[in-house]
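> tool_call: predict_assembly(chains=two)
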Amino acid sequence: MFVTSTISDSHVRILPENLGKARVEAVTDQLEITYVDKVFPELGFIISIYEILSIEGGTIYPSDGGATFSVRFSVVVFRPYVGEVLIGRLEKSNSAGLKVTLDFFNDVFVPEHALQAPSEFDEQEQLWVWKIDGNEAYMELEEKVRFRVMAVRFPEEPNSLAQENDTHTDKPEGEEAPLPLGCAGNPFAPMIVEGDINADGLGCLSWWS
Amino acid sequence: MRWRWRMGSRESQVLIKESEATYVHFGSTRTSCTACWHPSSQVNTMTVTIEIKHGGLLTNLEVLEVLRSRGADPEVAANPPRARDAAPCEIQTCEALKNGPCQKQSREILQALFTALEGYGLTKAERQQIANLRPATLVEMHLIIEDCEERYDEEQLEALLAYVEEHLGPVEEEGGEEQEEQEEQEIEEGV
């Protein structure tokens, strides 16, 4: 699930108000603001700073009150590899598939073609059912689910800046400004883990214990 | 060895995106309807480079230890003490890991387990998975180990499971406890 990665940032700026702190503390604080709890494309979801390897510099640029450091540090990254088996909780279920949550990471999707064969979607219950040996095994919400990682994708974020500044095209009247990216009406996930539940041992934990 | 040119503030890049000066826009992925969209967190990819993308696998236990040292566990103080509170992702990850098999583990236990598993030729990823998932059945071993049928026969897998049982302890039966509670309630109501 977790991996360490080493990043080098040559422009870590410590605000003037933090220059009184010890160097390592101020730099760590600034790195946490910039990196922790964020998705770094193609790297993963950065959970925490692991260690600071080197801090160099301390340059003060003209008309700048803060000092700029060049820092090499390593971070704990959540980036499951393809084929890794993880255990999550079933959060939502619809005809397109399942949404599983890992409590600290919510964007795990299991598309409907990757479920145990043969599975059907029960419209009334809005749950997926695995029909095996004449039995019906429902995948209830909030159940613990074991899945295998098929892919880890980092979708490009749509160019929100261009949308905001788009005054040239005529928008039809009545259409409101597009919702800000990332809210419920306009969801966007910078990192998506696709899972599959299509093998022995995968699916609800209760099926295999 | 990477060459670096300095032209003003530019440096050569070993990079994620090949296009020039793209701005890396970070977003929080705690929820897909994320409320944490930080325009201020745009970072210039000219100054940020990933030196080592994959520096090594971490077991859940090691991550839990790191998070505890950063103060993400309310029961454990940060060591060394830190200026700001732990980030939400650190707290949530710590919470999620505490409820998993790694809560009962320690470095010594894992070291003993890996020493016991030495002769079996498991890859690092497989050992990490065994430590993280605490497999209890043959089915789980087949999932964790690639080409399981070709590499090991059933006896060897049973031996592996026995080592896991011996070093990592018995499986926590959450479902069993709930069932027992329900049965007790039913008996009380019946009386």
